[in-house]
Amino acid sequence: MHVRFVARTALVAALLAATVTAAPSASAADNHLTLRPSADGRSAVATETRPVAAWRLDDRNRSQRAAAWAGPYRGLPGPGVRFGDQGPDGSMPGAANFDGGDFSYLNTDGIAVDTTHAFTAGVWVLPEETGRDTTAITQTGIASTANFSLGTTTDAAGNPVWSFTLPSADGETLVTGGTPQAGEWAYLAGVYDPATGSARLYVDGAPVATEDAAVPEDTVLWNFVMGRDGNDYSKKRWQGDLADVRLWDSVIDPVELAELGRRKPWLRAYWPMETTVLCCDGLTMIPEVDHRADFLLGGDAHITTDDALADTGSVSLDGDGDYLESDIPPLNTSRSWAVSAKVRLRGTPDRDMAVLSQLGRQADAFTLRYRAADRSWQAVLAHADEPDATTTQIGAPARGGIQTLLLQYDERAGNVQLWIDGTLADSAPYAAADVWEAVSYLQAGRDSAADGVGAHYLDGDIDEVRTWAGVLSGEEINSL
Q1: Separation CA 443–CA 323 (nearest Å)
Q2: CB-side neighbour CA atoms (13 Å) of 407
Q3: CA distance to 7, 356, 384, 394, 452, per residue, from 434 (Å)
Q4: Interatomic CA distance for residues 417 and 429, integer angstroms
């Protein structure tokens, strides 16, 4: 007989005769923090409730353990787990990769949370495949049904869906919803609320499904595991990345789950416009802080230290063929993104002038510009990489002087927003069907006028250009 099976069988008898409870948590006063209004006034932002068990999974490559940042249990990885992958916020390291093989698991040696009472479990997941049953995290139990599990399954039509399972008196409660996408991060959270007799599944901070649930009080608790269920020969092994695993011994407020499920923006590129460097073939460039996408100077564009918009330098453009162009695409316009810049125009211009634009092959995915007809800032977003494509346009008055402009596309909300000096100035729906990836370069000080030729040259100064993957909150925008 298998040694591990003998040990587990002996333990079953002992556990069935005892009441197993998770370690006591901090008091409500210590554990639950205050809600505060967000800077844009649209919703409350919850500070984090401390979990009873948590693993960031941002351990260094070749780490022998996954450090616990809450709770007493470290994670013990099998040979099929690799630390050091990029996390959902772009941090490196920030996630653990599970190869889906026989040794693709991360065990702990204890019970993370008492699932016979109220609890919440959350994890960032990136599946490399969908269309089958997989387990991202679970508290395994000893019976055929786990104490709980979060992962993927398929619906009656064979389509992949996210899943949250709990034991019930006659088998299991299964809550499913949302659509997993291979290679894409999502935040899963399962909530068991015995006060309402319900189990809820959240995806990316939004509730997607609820089912009636009642976990039997005599459920035997077992160890917490990542990457597979409790069966050593299971076919439900996770293939992909996991990050930021948390378990709470309470029902977490939906506002806090929404914030936890918001993919934090990743600063892809930042040009402070303070220095230049001489490159190959005598080209002058303004370095990006991490040298990920330097700006090439065109025309007579140059850094000036006279009356800089921020810090000690800004780029001065004379409106007669001056511009900046990145040497690689610094943002993916087919997913959530944001771009910002400080700008100051000379006088009151009588012609249209571009501040920032992202080039495609035949059109600009977006142009952020000054429109002379009504003295406004305007964002124009093309619905296809075609010269005469339909566009979405938003705008607001330009008051003159130094202004900070930020344009962002929110994939989940399906809209675009124009922020001016930390205030939401305008927004409009922007459907996923109209979004496309502009594979060319970011320009500052001109656009391409949908014909591949530079146009609408800016007469003024530009500074502090940034691009992000993801969407900024009002609070984050106000901090720029």
Answers
A1: 7
A2: 25
A3: 58, 20, 7, 15, 21
A4: 9
Residue type, 391: T
> Could you tell me the domains of the chain?
3-260 (2.60.120.200), 266-478 (2.60.120.200)
pLDDT in tens, 417-454: 999 999 999 999 999 999 999 988 999 999 986 566 68
pLDDT digits (tens, 9 = 90+) for 137-169: 999 876 678 999 999 999 999 999 999 999 999
**Residue 347: half-sphere exposure toward Cβ, Cα within 13 Å:** 8
Q: Is the peptide bond before 93 cis (omega within 30 degrees of 0)?
A: yes
Contact of 240 with 125, CB cutoff 8 Å: yes
Contact between 202 and 255 under an 8 Å Cβ cutoff? The reply is no
Per-residue pLDDT of 246-286, as tens digits, reads 999 999 999 999 999 988 898 999 999 999 998 877 789 99
CA nearest to 252, candidates 297, 304, 200, 212: 200
For the chain, how far is it from start to end, CA to CA, in angstroms? Answer: 64
315: its two tokens? 């780029």
Q: Which residues have C-beta within 8 Å of that of residue 82, sequence separation ≥ 6?
A: 61, 96, 97, 99
